[in-house]
Amino acid sequence: MANHKSAKKRILRNASRSEINHARIGRIRTFVKKVEAAIASGDKDAAKAAFQIAMPEVQRGVTKGVLHQNTASRKISRLSARIKAIGA
Prior knowledge:
Layout: H1 5-41, H2 44-64, H3 69-87
């Protein structure tokens, strides 16, 4: 158990930030799953629409520090490639 006031504060702060970060990661996953579901159904227009909504969420994850930039870029790139492959 922490004895210093600042250490106690950090424990509380870390717990609250962890909760927020987990919620943010879950939100990103939800949007990505919606895109993947649209891709699986073969509906290119729905996939594009879902992708346009998911892309800013993924980038926001980078800004907020829950995703690495390369991870976000990789996710976006792979989803985009899968959407393009629907019509081909």
